[in-house]
């Protein structure tokens, strides 16, 4: 029998779906492996450690027994800290009738204690809009309930997150880096549910059989479930859940999880069962497995291009905690780009283009990259990017940071055209794209079985953007030979991104 105690992570898993809780305890091996999620966990730990600097008097009671946490010791140390009048306790641990929690920061304030729950999210969206934090309410409510059951007078409940308005200058300032949000009022309704849900969650933990729960909106809310592949293994490969979900402005209705579940519950699961349903243009091509080539649409797109034509791709790392002056929390830091150039519509492009990779010494990579970009892309030329909003966003950021390069960078920005357009518009569609227009879907559909265009065939440890953004900041700490191999892998990967764009352009040119 597995450990049947309830932690805050297990409780929140139960709140999303009881099967999520049960599988996490009894069959963790079926979890979907997601490198991006693991990277976020690493960053979350880094943020948690930094948040302890909010209060200089913090005592951390974290205790390990080998690699595992020693929960009993942590609970005992917490009680000692309370008895000794400690002002702030990090990882303050409590247990009540099989329910355990460790509070990120617990601060003695007035005649009670305030919970500070630390999250690596930021307080605002990228556009400046304030975020809602409803998805964290079960977590915070559960901790509050456990503490109160243990006799702790909880008088304050705060969420600690990153302040997107903070710009680093000089030493990192934790007081300005973090935003503290009062959650007392927001958590009240959720707190009332805890006494009813805890016994049900404990019951799920103790049952031997997997809960019989079908797919629902909870598979995506508040998070995409890590057991999605396991729970959908009974579905055909081409199921309703793979149908293109976004509107293109070409008559495609939004086709998100609620609409897909509606079809699923009505027994319309496979593509064949969806053919007679109201669908948009691309969705219909997808479920009918049609090949569609609109040569006039492709020609109109290609006629907008001028030569020489520059194919551009960036690689970035996302600093949850800003490292460099002038940067904000969770800002994308561009450290690499690749460039292929086609001189004329009839010219043959060299397979190995130009690649720039910033020094791996931990210094701010942006200035040298921006200068190099301006050296290699003249003003007034046409540049192609794939899903251009990413490249344009990074160029805008560089232009704001370096005023002397502003005009040149914004000239590049204004002349970028998006290579994804003919695919997203439905001008070129192949069944193997299966409703996805990312370069990783379009490329193998256009060039099936081509080993030179297969990212899996790249040597080294970099085969996708997540691996690129993860490995670059680690190079500075690698032995020289390992660092050289990592840099080689990054250059090969980014080079393939722009070479893939060249090949896609050639395929479009053949349709004129």
Give a short account of the largest sheet. Answer: 6 strands, mixed
The overall pLDDT, averaged over residues, is 93
Poorly predicted residue ranges: 247-252
Question: If you consult CATH, what is the topology of the largest domain?
Answer: Nucleotidyltransferase, domain 5
Strand content: 15-25%
What is the name of the CATH class of the largest domain? Alpha Beta
What's the shape?
globular
| Second CATH tier, the architecture of the largest domain | 2-Layer Sandwich
Number of strands: 15
Quick structural summary:
By secondary structure, the protein is α/β, with parallel strands linked by helices. The protein has helices spanning 8-16, 18-26, 35-51, 71-83, 137-149, 174-177, 184-206, 228-231, 257-265, 281-287, 295-302, 366-376, 389-401, 406-414, 421-424, 439-446, 465-471, 480-509, and strands at 58-60, 64-65, 68-69, 88-96, 99-109, 112-122, 154-162, 178-182, 292-293, 309-319, 331-342, 354-357, 382-385, 416-418, 428-429.
Walk me through what this model shows:
- The protein is globular.
- The protein is built from 18 helices and 15 strands.
- Strands 1-4-5-6-7-8 form a six-stranded mixed sheet. A five-stranded mixed sheet has the order 12-11-10-13-14, sandwiched between helices. A two-stranded antiparallel sheet has the order 2-3.
- α1 crosses α5 (137-149), α5 (137-149) packs across α7 and α16 packs across α18 (480-509).
- It has helices spanning 8-16, 18-26, 35-51, 71-83, 137-149, 174-177, 184-206, 228-231, 257-265, 281-287, 295-302, 366-376, 389-401, 406-414, 421-424, 439-446, 465-471, 480-509; strands at residues 58-60, 64-65, 68-69, 88-96, 99-109, 112-122, 154-162, 178-182, 292-293, 309-319, 331-342, 354-357, 382-385, 416-418, 428-429.
- The longest helix has 30 residues, at 480-509.
- The relative contact order is 0.09.
- It folds into three domains: 8-206, Lambda Exonuclease, Chain A, CATH 3.90.320; 237-289, no CATH class; 297-509, Nucleotidyltransferase, domain 5 (2-Layer Sandwich), CATH 3.30.420.
- By secondary structure, the chain is α/β, with parallel strands linked by helices.
């Amino acid at each position: 029998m597995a450990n049947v105690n309830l932690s805050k992570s297990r409780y929140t898993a139960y709140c999303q779906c009881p099967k999520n809780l049960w599988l996490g305890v009894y069959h963790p091996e079926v979890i979907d492996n997601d490198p991006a999620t693991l990277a976020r966990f690493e960053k979350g730990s880094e943020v948690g450690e930094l948040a302890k600097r909010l209060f200089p008097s913090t005592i951390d009671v974290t205790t390990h027994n080998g690699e595992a946490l020693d929960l009993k010791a942590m609970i005992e140390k917490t009680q000692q800290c309370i008895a000794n009048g400690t002002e702030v306790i990090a990882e303050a641990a409590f247990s009540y009738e099989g329910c355990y929690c460790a509070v990120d920061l617990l601060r003695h304030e007035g005649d009670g204690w305030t919970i500070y729950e630390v999250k690596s999210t930021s307080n605002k969206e990228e556009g400046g809009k304030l975020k809602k934090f409803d998805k964290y309410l079960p977590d915070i409510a559960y901790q509050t309930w456990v503490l109160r059951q243990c006799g702790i007078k909880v008088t304050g409940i705060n969420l600690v997150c990153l302040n997107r308005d903070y710009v680093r200058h000089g030493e990192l300032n934790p007081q300005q880096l973090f935003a503290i949000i009062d959650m007392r009022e927001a958590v009240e309704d959720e707190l009332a549910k805890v006494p009813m849900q805890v016994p049900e969650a404990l019951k799920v933990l103790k049952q031997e059989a997997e809960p019989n729960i079908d797919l629902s909106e909870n598979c995506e809310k508040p998070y995409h479930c890590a057991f999605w592949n396991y729970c959908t293994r009974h579905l055909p490969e081409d199921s309703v859940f793979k149908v293109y979900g976004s509107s293109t402005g070409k008559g495609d209705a939004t086709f998100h999880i609620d609409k897909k579940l509606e079809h699923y519950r009505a027994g319309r699961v496979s593509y064949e069962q969806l053919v007679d349903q109201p669908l948009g243009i691309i969705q219909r091509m997808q479920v009918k497995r049609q090949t569609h080539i609109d040569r006039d649409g492709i020609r109109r797109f290609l006629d907008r291009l001028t030569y020489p034509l520059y194919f551009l791709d960036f690689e970035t790392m996302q600093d949850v905690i800003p490292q460099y002056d002038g940067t904000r929390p969770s800002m994308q830091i561009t450290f690499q780009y690749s460039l292929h150039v086609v001189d004329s519509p009839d010219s043959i492009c060299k397979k190995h283009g130009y690649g720039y990779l910033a020094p791996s010494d931990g210094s701010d990579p942006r200035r040298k990259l921006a200068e190099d970009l301006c050296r290699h892309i003249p003003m007034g030329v046409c540049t192609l990017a794939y899903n251009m909003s990413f490249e344009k966003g990074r160029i805008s950021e560089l232009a704001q940071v370096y005023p002397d390069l502003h005009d040149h960078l914004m000239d590049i920005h204004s002349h970028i055209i998006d290579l994804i357009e003919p695919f997203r518009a439905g001008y070129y569609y192949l069944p193997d794209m299966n409703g996805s227009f990312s370069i990783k879907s379009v490329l193998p559909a256009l060039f099936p079985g081509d080993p030179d265009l297969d990212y899996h065939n790249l040597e080294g440890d970099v085969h996708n953007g997540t691996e690129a953004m993860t490995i670059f900041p680690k190079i500075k700490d690698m032995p020289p030979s390992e660092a050289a191999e990592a840099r080689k892998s990054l250059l090969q990967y980014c080079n393939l991104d722009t070479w893939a764009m060249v090949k896609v352009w050639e395929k479009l040119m053949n349709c004129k």
